[in-house]
Amino acid sequence: MAFNNIFFNLTTAFIGGSCLFLLAVIFWFLVKSRKKNIWLPTLRIVKIDSPRLPKLKLVRPPLIPFLCFIISACGLLIFTTKPVKFIPESNKVEQPRVHLYLDLSPSISASINIDQYVAKIERALKALQGNAHISYSTSHSPQVYELSNSEKLAKKIQSLGFHRPGVRIGSSLKTTIKNIASLDVLLIFSDRDYHSWSDFNWKYFSENIEIRFVDITDSMLQERANVFIDKANFISSPTFQTMDWDVEIASVSTGMEKKGFLKVFYQKQEISNTPIIIPEKNSKINLRVSWPKTKISQKREDKEAYLLWRLEVVQGDQLKLDNEYRTPLRGLGNSVILIGEPSGEQMLEDMSKQLDVILSVMGFRVERYDHIVQPGPKVSDYPLWLLVGGAGYGVDGFCPDSLASYRQAYSSNSNKIEKKGAKIWLIPSSVASYGDLCWCYHRLLKAKDLDSVAPIFCRDVSDRNSFSAVLRSLGAKQIGGELGDSTQSLAWISKDYTSGVEVLAFTVPLQAGFDSGISHVQLPLLLNKLLGWQQLFNESTGNEGWARISDLATLYDKSINDSEFSKPSSDFVLSNVPHGESRLSVIAAEQLPPEWKFSTDSSKAIASLNKTHKDSFSLIVLIACLIMLALALELAWMVSGKIFKRNTARSFLFFILLASFAFSQRALKAEVSLNLVGYQNSTLKWGHLSQETSQRTSLSLAPSATQWSKLTEQSMDFPWIWVNSIEAISDKGVLFPQVVYWLKRGGLLIVQGSNSKEQLAHLTSKGFDLSPSARGWLPIAPEHVLMRSFYLLDSLPNCSGRVWSNFHYDGRMMILSIPYDFLSVVSDTRKLPSCENFQYSEHSVRRFINLLMVALASDYKKDQIHLPEILKRLR
Fold first, then answer.
1. Per-residue pLDDT tens digits for 586-633
2. Contact (CB, 8 A) for 225 and 318
3. Smallest Cα–Cα separation from 191: which of 580, 714, 556, 753?
4. Cα angle at 12 between 8 and 16, to 5 degrees?
5. What H or E segment, with its residue span, contains residue 563?
6. What is the pLDDT of residue 264?
């Protein structure tokens, strides 16, 4: 039926609806006006008697529900109050614990020097002398010190001085208070700088401790004036012979003209001197600063590869600490080592020559070698390594031993070797042997020593697809290609986080041509994007390197002790004063804590503070238990009254006795046991594993396994079967038909031991229709269900080069092949396999729990309702 010719008039519909509404109102008015009469237009008026209200009758409620109601109401009323647990009078200490937080941010240096700061602290200590137990900390670190004498505190402050990074008092105190055992009063010695106080909700802290503010500068500057470097952007191209910078200089006060000089230093040598003039009404000016490249040393061993910008202003500059500004040295490019044999006489045929030219144009300093002499150059000499190989001659000619030795040495003794890391590009040659590339990848990231022969899993790598499959099983992440299709990937990336070594293994040659699918136009753009993504090259003119650290607490990776103060990190030393500190903005006095003065009366007030501590957790738990008990009793009374019309009290007592008996018994738990087939009287026990499983999950694992000497009907009643030899479930190496049927019904077969790929493929050669959509035997990938079913795992250990693999059929894992005796590793006796130096650790327990979840519940993490629990177990 078509409705294309129907015309709907909104005006007509509105008028009609309004008329109906008006008629309804008139009818309602007529009925309402008759009150208790019903008016019928054509009949007569019928009188209706008004109903009488029933009389109120008070009935005594049952005793038990009434008491339950009273208990619940009182408990909820207490929940609305603010319970406080008072410390008894006998437990009070004679002196309160007072902590001094000393703010040494840059803004304070605009009004007083370090000697004046120390004098203010000594004056405060005299007022507190004998009235409190004192501890102190500075904004340099969260370390807390007990005050022994004022002279030691004065030397500490003078040795530290004002720091260049800014400080957020809120985040700094959050870390510092964790190191204080008990605290009654917190005295914050600071100025009224807006940047320092902006994140501090001191009223929240004041619920537990008394907070007082001490204005270390007495009064903030009436007239604020400061000049500082706002931005310094490098704008030169790599082909320029000069280094050009755009510099923006900001002025806080516009009440006077400011003159001076902007000088640039490199390794304490002046390379530029530019005069500056900031007019009276200007808040900022822009300068172009440049110098020849020849003034900059190009040695790789330069340790201080940064520029120091220094402002020298005659007047109108109160904050001197931000007159020095540091930027990383840019324009020379990073050093790159390129190892690759020539692949042709013409430039277009030689991939290494193409890479050399493109990187040189981009500003990198490229050193090319046809082959290397082992062990190869030092890792610290080059941030980027390009290894072009895979020509079938082994790995010694293009894969340096120095890279592998660095990773292994750093992993074994991280305290003696400086962590610099290296980024490595593993590139196949024009006619590549992917087995050599796999061998080199294993040596760089996985090998425990310098292998003289290729690992077993690399010997089967013959093409791009098998190379991608091995990298995927080793935990590498896909770069390029389509999602879910690893065969078309451009590269695979993996990193050793202990040493910082990062390998980007390409699956196609980085050469313009038909075989690689990369044009001559796309190749430079591709290298540009990859280098920028790895933070090795950036065409933008932004300011990188030692940024303005606005909150020093971001450097609090661990508690800084005295020895580390003498050798501060480069982030601390080379950082620049943040904008918030340089602008000298002030915060309103109403937003600050109450001010504390250096007087005797104030000190006595601190000594007489009421030391009541709020600890309401136990009281809340008690009230919650009473409410739940009252609700349970009331529910039991109501149920017994509904079921038994008479003798409610006796039936209620029966319910109480029944519930007590039920709770006294051991709660039923889901229990599962190991189902071993083909084992001959194994004495292995898994008591520790059973305890760990029951504590972490809702399952109960039997400490002893169910063993069968051969496959029976009873053995296939379990959801999984463990075998140490494929002969127990196969006939001439092929699965029994009943096992195939059991697998298709949902069973999981786990095969342990050293089985080759040919044996596993022959095991499933019958009974399964391996259509093109079926996936067959594959290595366990990082995103496999086994890697995420309960815990999130990074990788699975290999055994003599053999990896964990699974037979994937009908959309799930049916058979899992473990290359060693995994059950012996997690048993109480902890029998370790001989193929590798295995250790019984937390990782083995997590692998077993993941496998248990796969056997019983598949991948429950697809249900988003479990997301909060997943996030709690993230490593």
1. 888 888 888 887 665 555 555 554 444 445 556 667 777 777 777 777
2. yes
3. 580
4. 120
5. helix 562-565
6. 92
User: CA–CA separation, 494 vs 476, rounded Å?
Assistant: 5
pLDDT of residue 750: 92
For position 103, what pLDDT does the model report? 92
pLDDT given for residue 43 in this prediction: 52
Q: What is the DSSP letter of 862?
A: G
* Residue 613: strand, helix, or coil: coil
Reference 217, options 321, 104, 128, 136; nearest CA is 104
Region 86-93: mean pLDDT is 43
**Is 606 within 8 Å of 185 (Cβ atoms)?**
yes
Beta strand 269-278 with 258-266: parallel, antiparallel or unpaired? antiparallel
Q: Where are the alpha helices (DSSP H) in 665-699?
A: 687-696
DSSP bridge partners of 586: 193
Render the burial of 626-665: b for 16+ CB within 10 Å, e for the rest: bbeebeebbebbeebbeeeeeebeebbeebeeeeeeeeee
How open is the CA angle 492-495-501, to the nearest 5 degrees? 120
Residue with tokens 């902006």: 198
Whole-number pLDDT of residue 793: 84
Identify the bridge partners of residue 338 per DSSP, sorted by sequence position.
Answer: 368, 386
User: What does the block give as tokens for 313?
Assistant: 């202003």
Helices and strands: H and E segment counts in the chain: 25, 32
User: Is the peptide bond prior to 375 cis by the omega test (within 30 degrees of 0)?
Assistant: yes
CA gap 284, 119 in Å, rounded: 37
Report, in angstroms and rounded to the nearest whole number, the Rg of the chain calculated over CA atoms: 39
Tokens of 516: 């690689």
Other Cβ atoms closer than 10 A to 621: 10
Handedness of CA 463, 464, 465, 467 (dihedral sign): positive
3-class secondary-structure state, position 404:
helix
Can you tell me the distance from the alpha carbon of 612 to that of 830, in angstroms, rounded to the nearest whole number?
53
How would you class 388 by CB atoms within 10 Å of its CB: exposed for 0-12, middle for 13-18, buried for 19 or more? Answer: buried
Please write the tens of the pLDDT for every residue from 744-788: 888 899 998 888 888 888 888 888 876 655 567 888 888 888 888
Residue 648 DSSP label: H
HEC readout, 574-589: CCECCHHHHCCCECCH
Terminal alpha carbon distance of the chain: 62
- Phi first, then psi, for residue 467 (nearest 5°) are -65, -45
Q: Given this model, what pLDDT does residue 803 score? A: 87
Q: 808: part of which helix (H) or strand (E)?
A: strand 805-809
Spatial CA neighbour of 506 closest among 538, 537, 530, 539? 530
Contacts of 755 (CB under 8 A, 6+ apart): 726, 817, 819
On whether the CB atoms of residues 128 and 98 are closer than 8 A, the answer is yes
CA distance 568 to 142: 14
Asked if 467 and 507 touch (Cβ cutoff 8 Å), the reply is yes
How does the average pLDDT of the chain come out, rounded? 77
Torsion angle in degrees (nearest 10) through CA of 376, 380, 386, 389: 20
Q: Residues, the chain, total?
A: 875
**Cα(124)–Cα(799) distance, rounded to whole angstroms?**
67
Q: Please give the structure tokens belonging to residue 285.
A: 């000016």
Using alpha carbons, select from 719, 678, 677 the residue that is nearest to residue 701: 719
Q: What pLDDT is stored for residue 132 in this prediction? A: 76
pLDDT digits (tens, 9 = 90+) for 406-463: 888 876 554 444 456 789 999 988 766 788 888 889 888 888 877 677 888 888 888 8
Identify residue 337 by its one-letter amino acid code.
I
- 812-818 and 324-328 as β-strands: parallel, antiparallel, unpaired? unpaired
DSSP state, residue 764: T
As a whole number of angstroms, the distance between CA 493 and CA 474 comes to: 11
Paired tokens of 751: 């095969």
Q: How many CB atoms lie within 10 A of CB 442?
A: 22
